[in-house]
Amino acid sequence: MRVLGVDPGLTRCGIGVVDGERGRRARCVEVGVVRTPAETELPRRLQVVGEEVERWLDRHRPEVVAVERVFSQHNVSTVMGTAQVSGVVALLAAQRDVPVAFHTPSEVKAAISGSGRADKKQVAAMVTKILGLDTPPKPADAADALALAVCHVWRGPMLARIAEAQTRAEALAKNHRNRLQEASRAARRSGEKPSKGHRR
Amino acid sequence: MRVLGVDPGLTRCGIGVVDGERGRRARCVEVGVVRTPAETELPRRLQVVGEEVERWLDRHRPEVVAVERVFSQHNVSTVMGTAQVSGVVALLAAQRDVPVAFHTPSEVKAAISGSGRADKKQVAAMVTKILGLDTPPKPADAADALALAVCHVWRGPMLARIAEAQTRAEALAKNHRNRLQEASRAARRSGEKPSKGHRR
């Protein structure tokens, strides 16, 4: 399985491609970072990052794109730009029919290091070890992109099965709710409404 | 000036096109809303909204796209999707060399109704009056998209000048800072460091 991991960001956007199967050694195909200057206006920054992501998608043809799931609880001043980049990445993948998986930072850390609370340095060290690299990828955003890709190689299929089961369960629950509501409406129409006012 | 206004959203994304000049009656060219079902996965939802925005951009060829500036203080559960849509819209405009202007909800309300605290109903009523429509555009997201476009027609050129002045002022300040740092470094190198240790 070839996974393209993206650690979304405007100032630095980490991108990394990993080949691997669960149970086998994963391999780093390419890793890098796209930078855009803060002085450049937002639409142009999104375009620069988008063009680079498109080049990586077309060059490596990944089966899946793994993107960090952004939470609004984080640093308020940067979270909007990060969310906008993640939207752009998801769009560009969807345009190429490449599925997109979102993983939370703690999912990634837990998958890579066994602890959801590992710091950036520990994640970079584990990525270096797992992929058999000579030195830790720099900057941290590049290491994070590889960590996302490794996380997906290892946990993606399982997480996808969980998500599928959840969707099925939700659809079932919705179906039940609808049938209950229908039955209740039918009961009301036929005058058998079990409310106080009808106890004559 | 032709402005395409977008009230970004995944469940409902309002789009409206307005022709106008400051001081003349503005005209509604087209208004609508793109809906995507919550069951559909995120990348596909972004793609559906993106394709519709592209159709509007290509059909109306606006001079500017006006998008609501998203704040993370808002509803946490929807703000990420909204930010992602705004990123996609900015990208698609940038790909066509159409400038993008971001306006905050209170800027829009203040421009349209004179008060930054107008509610959705008041904004819709004012948009209806300003554009001489027979009935208020529905849903509220469609009215909001027109409000954004009208706001930009009326206030855009002024806001753009303010933003330009700010950028210039920041560049000047940065330049001054750099020159001060350089002078300080040069002073230190020549041994004239004005610190206590040098008062022999």
TrEMBL record, chains A, B:
Active site: D7, E68, D141
Residues that, per the record, bind Mg(2+) 1: D7, D141
Annotated keywords: Cytoplasm, DNA damage, DNA recombination, DNA repair, DNA-binding, Endonuclease, Hydrolase, Magnesium, Metal-binding, Nuclease
Disordered: annotated segments: 173-200
Cofactor requirement: Mg(2+)
The EC number(s) this enzyme carries: 3.1.21.10
Reactions listed under catalytic activity: Endonucleolytic cleavage at a junction such as a reciprocal single-stranded crossover between two homologous DNA duplexes (Holliday junction)
Transmembrane segments: none
InterPro entries: RNaseH-like_sf (IPR012337), RNaseH_sf (IPR036397), X-over_junc_endoDNase_Mg_BS (IPR020563), X-over_junc_endoDNase_RuvC (IPR002176)
One GO term (biological process): DNA recombination
Assigned GO CC terms: cytoplasm; Holliday junction resolvase complex
Cellular compartment(s): Cytoplasm
Biased composition (Basic and acidic residues): 189-200
GO molecular function: crossover junction DNA endonuclease activity; DNA binding; magnesium ion binding
Residues binding Mg(2+) 2: E68
Major enzyme class: hydrolase
Record text on cofactor binding: Binds 2 Mg(2+) ion per subunit.
Main localization (coarse): cytoplasm
Family stated for the protein in its record: Belongs to the RuvC family.
Entry-linked HAMAP family: RuvC
Function statement: The RuvA-RuvB-RuvC complex processes Holliday junction (HJ) DNA during genetic recombination and DNA repair. Endonuclease that resolves HJ intermediates. Cleaves cruciform DNA by making single-stranded nicks across the HJ at symmetrical positions within the homologous arms, yielding a 5'-phosphate and a 3'-hydroxyl group; requires a central core of homology in the junction. The consensus cleavage sequence is 5'-(A/T)TT(C/G)-3'. Cleavage occurs on the 3'-side of the TT dinucleotide at the point of strand exchange.
Subunit: Homodimer which binds Holliday junction (HJ) DNA. The HJ becomes 2-fold symmetrical on binding to RuvC with unstacked arms; it has a different conformation from HJ DNA in complex with RuvA. In the full resolvosome a probable DNA-RuvA(4)-RuvB(12)-RuvC(2) complex forms which resolves the HJ.
Protein's UniProt name: Crossover junction endodeoxyribonuclease RuvC
Organism: Allosaccharopolyspora coralli
